[in-house]
Amino acid sequence: MSLSGNTPEGTGHVGTLTPNQAKALKQLWAAILEIQANGTVTLTHDPKLNVPPTPAVDPAPVAASVGWGGGWFGAAATPAAPVEPVAEPPLTITLEEIGLSAADVKTELWNNVMCDHPDSLVLRFLRARKWHVGNGLTMLLKAFKWRQEMNVDDVKTKGDDELEVAYPKFKKQLEMGKFYVHGTDKHGQPVVYLNVQLHRAGDQDYKTLERLTIYLMETGRLLIQSPVETVALIFDLTNFGLGNMDYNLVQFLVKCFEAYYPESLGAILVHNAPLVFWGVWKVIEPWLDPVVASKIKFTYKNQELLEFIPAQHLPDTFKDAGLDKFVYTYLPPVAGENDLMKDEAGKAQVVEEWNVLGGKFEDATRAWIKNGGAVSEDRETLAKELKAQYFKMQPYTRAKNQFQRKNEAGQTILHPDGTTTWTYNN
């Protein structure tokens, strides 16, 4: 499922696949396993796989169920006319061309699965490439290469203090509330608030901002609760001036959502944009993929936010709309919070258990592909075991973040079993 318990068949999420979508998923898994084994794979695209299914329900509710929808100015997108499938020549993909080894693929695959159903990760890339298996595999492998080059894992293995040493003013960005995550919208998506007026490009090194963006992506994934798979962003442009604009950072953020964390963005709300912003928008708009652009909506009055976020969840800084007396406070690291990461024997044990489960899932996937069954109970059981094992392994392999630290009331947002509790002060 995607964002709601009644997501209809054909939306392309775990549990909602059409026969053609399930076939594409099997083909992509088969290609991943083959390229790990041989370093190369040749795929012949079946054009029938990327023909969208006939909607089972009215398109408007479906659009609403996967985000805020509405396009740039609130108009629902008109479904495209059916396109006649076109045959393509076989596509050969090699790890050498991508710059990865078979070991790299296996490592990045399971590092990226984290607490999700493994199919959920693979399906993100299939949906992003409209069920074209070859293009989906290429996109997936390039994302793995990027994660390797960017050393994405260091935002997980380093604590906030270590990240501050490696990337000066990293903690300052967290402390000042330039961005914060608080609560969920009407579709259960965690909401990321970006206070653009607090940002000036020259106030910190660009590498720090890149690392902060990756940190937000990787931390945000922990806050998303199944069956939800996406987050919502609010760019608050109150008091925005040209000195707050950072084109490089916007480009990096757009690239992350489009290429490296596809299908992770449910909605973008650009709030209270002043007149001066429209010159900026003319520069930004051509950079956007149509799928990302379709998720952007402009709002001006605080009351408009209530269309998307319950008043009880919306901070009362949005006057006359929000009821939540929330005040952002950064929770700093606590001495000894990452001591289990020093336990090499304990770490080796839980990592080995994780690796064994991953191997069993790959074996079950091979059997599923070979047998042609619609659903593999073994794979579903293993997916649940992998999720539980991830949270068992996490204290040994991943530094704590502020969502796992206790506030003054002794409460945490993110719990050891991966569930979340948002507290609203109404």
TrEMBL record:
Q: CRAL-TRIO domain location, by residue?
A: 167-326
Q: Which Pfam families match?
A: CRAL_TRIO (PF00650), CRAL_TRIO_N (PF03765)
List the PROSITE patterns: CRAL_TRIO (PS50191)
CDD domains in alphabetical order: SEC14 (cd00170)
Q: Which Gene3D superfamilies match?
A: CRAL-TRIO lipid binding domain
Please indicate which superkingdom the organism of origin belongs to: Eukaryota
Q: What is this protein called?
A: CRAL-TRIO domain-containing protein
Taxonomic source organism = Linnemannia exigua
